[in-house]
Model the fold of this input.
Amino acid sequence: MRVTRSIITAAAIVLLAAWESQAQNKLNVVTSTEDLASIAREVGGERVNVTALARGYQDPHFVEPKPSFILAVNRAGLYVAVGRELEIGWLPPLLTSSRNARVQPGASGYLDASLNVRILEIPTGQITRAMGDVHPFGNPHYWLEPGNGRLIAQAIHNKLGELSPPDRPYFGQRYDDFDRRLAAAEKRWDAIMAPYKGTKVVTYHRSWPNFMERFGLEVIGYVEPKPGIPPSPSHTLDLIEEMKRQGVKLIIVEPYFSLRTPQAIANQIAGGKVLVLAPSVGGMKEVTDYIQLFDYNVNLLAGALKQVTGK
Amino acid sequence: MRRVYVLWPVLAAGLLVGAVRPSSAQTADVESLRREIEQLRKELAAVQQQYDQRLAALEARLGAAQSAPAVAPPQAPATPPTAEVPPGAAGPGTPAGQLPVYGAATAGSKIFNPDIGMIGNFLGAVGPNKGGSETVAPTPFMTLQESEASFQAIVDPYARADFFLAIGEEGIEVEEGFATFPALPGGLLVKAGKMRANFGRLNAFHNHTLPWIDRPLVMYNLLGGSAEDPDTGIKDAGISVSRLIPAGNVFLEATGELYRGDSGTLFKSSRRRDLAALGRVRGYVDLTDQTNVEAGVSYVRGHNDLGSDFLTELYGADLTLRWRPLSRAIYRSLAARAELVWSRREEVSAFQRASGLYGSLDYQFARRWFAGGRYDQAERGANASIRDRGFSGVLTYWPSEFSQVRGQYRRTRFGDDGRVANELLFQLLFTIGAHGAHPF
Done:
């Protein structure tokens, strides 16, 4: 009996060790958000394990540095950050306590995905917190533009090839395939959005400048009086006036904000409409990868624009 | 495009090297060579494509830059400012000619300045009875109790440094100042310097990150409080080593710390070898995406004020339960905390065995509003026959991430004279400078 048991135990240990070593063969990639995770999966395929820390339906500015995240970062061979101080409130303590030299800022396993992309709203001149929670290095919601998605994929592709040279051709192939599918999808999205170029909208937070610029929509105001500052009655009244004056009917909201104020604004405007779009992969159940993120948003937005503009 | 032409000779050289191989394995070689060429061709195409894309991206960026409003042309590099040698300083062995002016042309080096922040902790208290005991410092009518200056930066590829200077009404104290080594082998995290010790949950918190205005009675009575020091807790110069213990999806961390052995009224080091030692194990697990629980046990020992032959030992247990629905994370959250501390203080003829605890609940009911309550009781470490009890209700308002207004009703029954203190405390916290990490 005892012999059998010890044999089973030994076999289990061997199996576990084998499984563990197999898991270690793959490069562990940890990303701040699900968007970066999706792009890393596109490029890395089955040769990498990808984990995202923040969920797509959660405000990426306010993620809690949970100890379980320390475990994830501890096992990472590559950490991909959004950068531009989006994660300033939670990433530094995670990296410090991760006990992982590979992913410390400046080490080869740390990638700031924002370094090569097109960043908007970089403040010029003096900035103070009287402007709200401004990001001194520009708007960090840059992934909401497919061109930037491609540049992120390129950066991840280069980094993965650097960390795992034998897999370079494989990553190259995966990147090309992603690039091709993205280009085809872009044509589709442009065609859907073409009739609505120049339409004016309002958004809750400044999450959408790259997206709106790409598809030619104009944001004339925000539900938040200043970035990170919750809506105030006087600002809400001003916004309603402005929307009426300019004939703006559509308010775009991220899923992690309360719909109360946007709904109240929409009710004051004839034909006013509130639309919840996904700012990230995972923001809605059906948005499971980077290309679907735009599929979802573009289709929903075009439907709503058709309703409010009659085009 | 030029890169392509550069690559052709390389390819040709590769072919040449392949061609002069011995002929015995020629067929196999030809096959592998063919594959290699195919591979190279593919990589070349990939490089070419990448190049084209980069070029296109650059062109697009250039176009965008041209359409953007013109920026001021770069100024001609100014000659570095210099100064004359002062008349009195001339002579043999002294500098001659123009002297450089330091600090003028070094603006670039400012990027290496640490992140600097300053937090003001302004308190007020009203109530018929002032409160306070020999372990609890009374709160005056109004006080800028603490201004905390923080300086944080990465030292080099191996270390980062964090300084927290607490400027109180009496003077300035290095509340913490330590270097952290995050890149050590063996999964170790080492800190060295002056630190708040990792005893229990609350001791490591700074005053401004507490969910209340004050610290609970157990920290004043058992962790070295005095009537003079409004900021109590174990803080000392020492070294901390911690390591993760592999346990699947459970976060398990063991910490060992060694201190000089001087901390408030708790530990006193009369000889160099009167050290204080600490051990802590904490575990954390995500029950769901939105609920998690953390538990820890701690032990610390050191020499007390009676001399080198007298030890004080503390045992602690803590439990924290948190709930925060991720999609409404900025509007709703809940945290329940409990902590128990047992103290065994060696005295001339016997031991003083004292214990204390607190339990609290904090609930965020709107984006800017938090409400909470706390029950606490503690015997005094040096006189366990005296037990103080307290209850607090707290309401917090957050105008923004960088300021906080808080009110707290505190009722304390002091055990020595049956005195009951009913106090209303107010707090205004305000932060400038670097955006610090959110506490967890």
